[in-house]
Amino acid sequence: MIASRGAHRAGEAVTAPARLWRGLYRAGAMAAALYVLLIIIPIVLLNVAPVPPLIGGAAILDYIAAHKLVYLIELVSFVGLSLPAIIVFLALYVAISERNPSSAALGATIGIASEIIALAYNSSPPSLHPGLLSLSNQYIEATSAAQRTALATAAEALMAISNTVNAAGILTALGILITALAMLKGGFSKGAAYLGIATGAIGIVSETLRDMIGPGYYVYGLLLPAWFLAVGWNLYRLEKI
Q1: Model confidence over 107-119: pLDDT tens digits?
Q2: Which of 7, 14, 89, 137 has its CA 20 to 30 A from that of 100?
Q3: How far apart are CA 234 and CA 137, in angstroms?
């Protein structure tokens, strides 16, 4: 009887921290699902609708005028997914910090910082930038060739910002890699941890060499939502403890 009570109390001690953070784990699981959704929607659109041009200011402004809703959905999805990612990294830190606090803190800090940087950039490939929406409206209403040329030149500058390699993507992959290594020490399935290690390692290379690897980038593009889905499922299970 005494041994049974002792085991019961030990179980309570193990699950007590998880119970205290149920709300955050639930939010993390929901945020992970939202993140995956915000990746799937624009990817589907990029495959069923015309793709935004990567070069040519006039071309992108004409494209936006003809496909404004599609462009807006892709922009909001690709830029907005940084918000749920922040919640996921925070929930992950709490979930794994007890057994590996240093790596958990480092991974979460880099991951959250990367998403804040991404929000500050407020743009994403392919040629997604809120400023281009305004330029497109002005371009359509322009009454002279000189006005259109000036607007097209401004659009090319914003396209360069949107399509260039930036630190945010590389840091996100690094944050995932460090967090996944911390996940190996407990609290999460080994499968999710190894998937995160692969995602982070491949992501660092893919983001750094994005302009050179072409379609090879899609490997990382598939691993990224898969990892967030696995993490979301694990957070959901923790929330049920």
Answers
A1: 999 999 999 999 9
A2: 7
A3: 45
Number of domains in the chain: 1
In a domain, 6, yes or no: no
Cα gap 239→27, rounded to integer Å:
9
Place of tokens 């899609």: 218
Which DSSP symbol is given to 124?
B
Amino acid at 175: G
Look up the domain containing 218 and give its range: 19-239
Instruction: Enter the pTM of the model.
Output: 0.88
Task: Specify the 3-state DSSP secondary structure of 211.
Answer: helix
Distance CA 139, CA 155 (A): 10
DSSP 215: G
Residue 136 in any domain: the answer is yes
What letter represents residue 181's amino acid? L
